[in-house]
Design goal:
Elements lengths: L5 H7 L5 E2 L14 E2 L1 H17 L3 E7 L2 E7 L5 E6 L1
């Protein structure tokens, strides 16, 4: 996680939070859902740490009419999109 507050992230998530990945057949994705606030928080923490070390930044975005995020590299090229 960017600020490293794993416990804070766990508290923000519903106890039954779930993370689903779909690379659309073109990108690496999580093949099985990750369930539970603690497991989702740990997954996100690891993903965000990798993004940060790669110079990828998170930008709030609307995705299909819902809150989401886009991930862009140092040249502002789109790397990925998440919907919430």
């Amino acid at each position: 996680m960017i600020r490293g507050d794993l416990d804070g992230l766990v508290r923000l998530l519903a106890t039954d939070a779930a993370f689903y990945g779909d690379g659309g057949g073109k990108a690496a994705a999580f093949t099985r859902p990750v369930a539970g606030a603690d497991r989702v928080a740990r997954l996100l923490s690891g993903v965000f740490a990798k993004f940060k070390s790669a110079g990828i930044r998170i930008v709030r975005a609307e995705v299909n009419g819902q809150p989401g995020a886009k991930f862009v590299d140092a040249s502002d090229r789109l790397v990925g999109v998440w919907s919430l």
